[in-house]
Amino acid sequence: MILLxxxxxxxxxxxxxxVTHIYKGDFNDPGLPMCARGWNxxxxxxxxxxxxxxxxxxxxxxxxxxxxxxxxxxxxxKRKTKWL
Length: 84
Description:
Layout (H helix, E strand, L loop, with lengths): L6 E6 L8 E4 L7 E2 L15 E3 L9 H8 L16
Antiparallel strand pairs: 1-2, 1-4, 2-3
């Protein structure tokens, strides 16, 4: 997948069998995820990703749509998540 400049892919460190998300930033500072599920930690305010990697499942469609539309990343908010 080719990303626009200023975006980086991030694969969840906990599970290679979930969609990969897009982050508005760069490899050194991934920045904000393009959808709320990019915040993959239990408090909904953190993430743990392998930068630049894609897992066994495709890239998040919500992230792709938001990136192509030039929308900003999603700010963190408390939400229930699967991981720690």
